[in-house]
Amino acid sequence: MLLENRNAVIYGGGGAIGGAVARVFAREGARVFIAGRTRAKLDAVAHDVAAGGGKIETAQVDVFDQEAVEKHADAVAASAGSIDIALNAVSVPHDQGTLLADLSVEEFMRPIDGFLRALFITSKAVARHMGRERPGVILTLSEPGSKLAVGGILGHAASAAGKEAFARVLAAELAPSNIRVVGIRPHAVVDAPAAGSYTGELFKPIAAAAGQSVEQLLHGGGMAQGTLLKRLPTLAEVAETAAFLASDRAAAMTGTIANLSAGALVD
Predict the structure, then answer these.
(1) Cβ atoms < 10 Å from Cβ of 158
(2) 93, pLDDT greater than 90
(3) What's the domain range around 71?
(4) Which DSSP symbol is given to 134?
(5) Whole-prediction pTM value?
(6) In a 3-state reduction of DSSP, which class is residue 124?
(7) Is 180 part of a structural domain of the chain?
(8) Residue 204 falls within a domain, yes or no?
(9) Which pLDDT belongs to residue 256?
């Protein structure tokens, strides 16, 4: 198993991506700790993992509460002995589709402040318990908006670029402590049914404005057709990639971004 005897913390572990990664990490032998705001979502993921024989613990934690996040990380490290892997999969609701003339500064700053604040708080909390004799891995999530020249995504694009810059610089800082930092950049992540996912909720207003369903926007000649593969990445593909990047098989990878955009971006 790729992650046998590893201890992994996933913030936003009750969400679509966080939950999918938790299930794969547990399947690959990791002891998984998921944290998030909504108990019911955390419990649903934990039920799936436990049913498959995996090891998982849950905690209600507000990722924007630095003291609470640090206390949780301290408790995990005390219980497990170390934190070997961490992923921040927290989602921040934000606007997509509004152009500069109609965009408020508050809406522009919402994803920038939210995503980067959460990434800073969680990374700082776990890094103290990582590395040295046990290699550590911090995984981050961004989006193609970091490089796309598309109108209506100013805040989204700035936050995505900020997360990728954060990951690269943090990799340089933590490398001497035997900690890798690797970003994952999926496109709009889909799974059936797409309309029930965070992706579906995010793109619902854009689809409605275009007179389309979310499925039509994502698949029917829409976003999927803008990729080389003519499809969008799935939750399973993101989760399997995360497990590989967190494993020793990717031990030479740090300070870089794994492009899971299905060819929407070609690096």
Answers:
(1) 18
(2) no
(3) 7-187+233-260
(4) B
(5) 0.91
(6) helix
(7) yes
(8) no
(9) 97
